[in-house]
Automatic annotation (TrEMBL):
Domain DUF5071: 7-128
Gene3D superfamilies in the record: Domain of unknown function DUF5071
InterPro entries registered for this protein in UniProt: Cthe_2751_sf (IPR038692), DUF5071 (IPR031837)
Protein name: DUF5071 domain-containing protein
Domain of life, per lineage: Bacteria
Length: 136
């Protein structure tokens, strides 16, 4: 078994820590204390561990990760929003995606200037249309 601190990547190349994190059953382990730090590692999807970490995060308990996804979608950090929309949300179980549908709709229907400029609203629309109903 690992100490919870050992499950936080040390740098953007820390695939060894991702292997440890994959070995933990997120339904049986309280990972809540490190979720904030884990979510920070998906702020830039170009970091070597970011895409794999999105897949891992998608397996966590919905009640743990939904607040973080909602926080990212409201963060104003367009890179982080993009990572979450393109690489985390599609990996979520359908029932979890359904819970954050309204958050995606906010980005689609009322994007900030920067969300429009960075085309975050377009990414959100594409994900919404893929996993939910077609928008009119």
């Amino acid at each position: 078994m690992f100490l919870i601190e050992e499950l936080i990547p040390k740098d953007k190349f820390d695939v060894g820590t991702l292997a440890k994190l994959k070995a933990v059953d997120p339904t049986q382990t309280n990972l809540q204390p490190i979720l904030s730090e884990l979510f920070e590692w998906i702020q830039d999807i170009n970091w070597p561990i970011a895409k794999e970490l999105c897949i891992i995060l998608a397996s966590f308990k919905p009640e743990d990760i939904i607040p973080y996804i909602q926080m990212v979608l409201k963060s104003g950090d367009e890179g982080w929003q993009y990572s979450c929309i393109r690489y985390l949300i599609p990996k979520l179980p359908s029932e979890v995606r359904g819970i954050i549908a309204l958050d995606l709709r906010r980005v689609i229907d009322n994007p900030t200037y920067n969300e429009t400029w960075c085309e975050i609203d377009i990414a959100a629309r594409e994900i919404y249309e893929t996993y939910f109903e077609k928008l009119e």
